[in-house]
Write a structure and sequence with these properties.
By secondary structure, the chain is mainly α. Helix content is 60%, strand content 10%. The chain has a single domain, classed as Arc Repressor Mutant, subunit A, CATH 1.10.10. A three-stranded antiparallel beta sheet has the order 1-3-2. The longest helix is centred in the first third of the chain and has 12 residues.
């Protein structure tokens, strides 16, 4: 019951952000540019990072990439959101 209440209190925008990133890894620049354009005053990006739903992958000289974590993918499943099969594979590989 508490889990359902927690899911209901999550901001739909947080779920939207995690779902958008889960579709494919995004550059940090793309994520921040897109987020600032659509929701500049909200802390959804910070919340997603703080809760461990998204992570930054830094591997110079490549650009910094943002990916959904296993916790982010689990969050999407629990919320009934779409989780692309390729995200399951890449998250599992990066978790291990």
């Amino acid at each position: 019951m508490a889990k359902n209440a927690a899911m209901q209190s999550l901001d739909p925008l947080l779920l939207d952000l995690v779902e958008w990133v889960a579709r494919e890894p995004r550059t940090y620049r793309d994520v921040i540019d897109t987020w600032r354009t659509s929701c500049p005053r909200l802390t959804i990006w910070e919340d997603a990072i703080d809760h461990g739903y998204l992570t930054r992958d830094v591997a110079p000289p490549r650009p910094v990439m943002v990916k959904a974590t296993p916790a982010g993918l689990a969050l999407l499943r629990e919320a009934g959101r779409r989780v692309p099969a390729s995200s399951d594979t890449s998250a599992a590989a990066s978790a291990g």
